[in-house]
Amino acid sequence: MRLHMTNSGAITLIAPSHFKQFEILVDEQPSASLDRAIARVGQRADDEHIWVNPQVIRFLSGKAGDADWEAGFDAMVGFARKFNWVNEAGLIRAHIVRNERADSSSVEDFKAAMRMLAAGVSAITTGDVANPSGMVVSSLTAISAEPPLVGFFVHRDSSMLEPLKTHAKFVANILGHTHEGVATNFLKKPQGCSRFAEGQWGSGLDGLPILADALANVECHVIHTTTLGTHEMFVGKIRRTTTGASGSPMVNFNAGMRALVQ
Predict the structure, then answer these.
(1) Residue 131 DSSP SS3
(2) What single DSSP character describes residue 190?
(3) Secondary-structure breakdown of the chain: helix, strand, coil percentages, each rounded to the nearest 5
(4) Cis peptide before 209 (omega within 30 of 0)
(5) Residue of 45, 58, 42, 54 lying closest to 5 (CA atoms)
(6) 43-91: per-residue pLDDT in tens?
(7) Which domain holds residue 114?
(8) More confident position, 112 or 238
(9) pLDDT at 261 over 60
(10) Residue 178 neighbours by CB distance under 10 Å
(11) 124 FRET partner, CA 20 to 30 A, in 18, 98, 187, 262?
(12) Is residue 174 a part of any domain in this protein?
């Protein structure tokens, strides 16, 4: 098995049932980022090895509790113990493999390509009508119908990051082509009531700001967050949805807001 410390901030486990080998694949990344990744799984042994908490492996494997997998994992740990690759705290030593194939496109090329991806526009809101916070995203995506989950991404420097973490709930208000004023305010006005000066705003579940004439409202509570690159992903479990009158959606394409002609 191979623990992969990516340069996007994600840590994954590859081939969790391959017990004859355990190593850590490390993408090229700043030393501070690598130190944070190591702290999430265990501790540094030396420049070429990391001590890994076996409970982290169990969690990332997705197979914890499976009798056959547990037997194989226990055998792997037992083998490592014979060679003093398990310390007194029960951490397992793994060799670092430097990933020489972690190439990525430039920021400019990435943005140019993503501008060609047409996407719906949503106003994400949290707080309440007296102290609202909001942002516009084109990253809202359906994740699962059973259970009903949606997700979106927030830049680490966004003024929306802390309100979302504090309230741990949100509404995704799906915008139509008539909501240009709402989108413009969300993009240009500071956080707070001035950002909500445009639009027919009311109160949803728990007092969350909700756009009455949105194409749809998706009211959620946050069940998962994770950092990926420069952004934090928020996953929400849907508590209630409301579908408004039919209309043309607002679409983000080539760095501009447009109406989708039906």
Answers:
(1) coil
(2) P
(3) 25, 40, 35
(4) no
(5) 42
(6) 999 999 999 999 999 999 999 999 999 999 999 999 999 999 999 999 9
(7) 109-259
(8) 238
(9) yes
(10) 14
(11) 262
(12) yes
Domain identity same for 84 and 134: no
Say whether pLDDT at 102 is over 60.
no
Residue by residue, DSSP assigns 16-37 as TT-TT--EEEEES--HHHHHHH
CB 118 within 8 A of CB 252: yes
Do both 187 and 134 map to the same domain? yes
How many CB atoms sit inside 10 A of residue 65's CB?
A: 7
Residues 146 and 253 in one domain: yes
Q: Indicate whether 179 and 203 sit together in one domain.
A: yes
Number of residues that this document lists for the chain: 262
**From CA 3, how far away is CA 34, in angstroms rounded?**
13
Residue in 103, 104, 99 with CA at minimum distance from that of residue 23? 99
The two tokens of residue 81 are 């113990």
Say what the pTM is: 0.76
Q: Are residues 140 and 231 in the same domain?
A: yes
- Please report which confidence band the pLDDT of residue 9 belongs to, taking 50, 70 and 90 as the band edges: confident
124: CATH? 2.30.110.10
What three-state secondary structure class fits 171? strand
For position 103, what pLDDT does the model report? 67
Distance, in Å, from the CA atom of 200 to the CA atom of 210, rounded to the nearest integer, reads 8
pLDDT in tens, 10-24: 999 999 999 999 999
C-alpha 51/C-alpha 185 separation (Å) is 50
14/26 Cα distance (integer angstroms): 13
Query: What is the residue type of 21?
Result: Q
CB-count exposure of residue 168 (10 Å: 0-12, 13-18, 19+) = middle
Structural domain total, the chain: 2
Q: Specify if 104 maps to a domain.
A: no
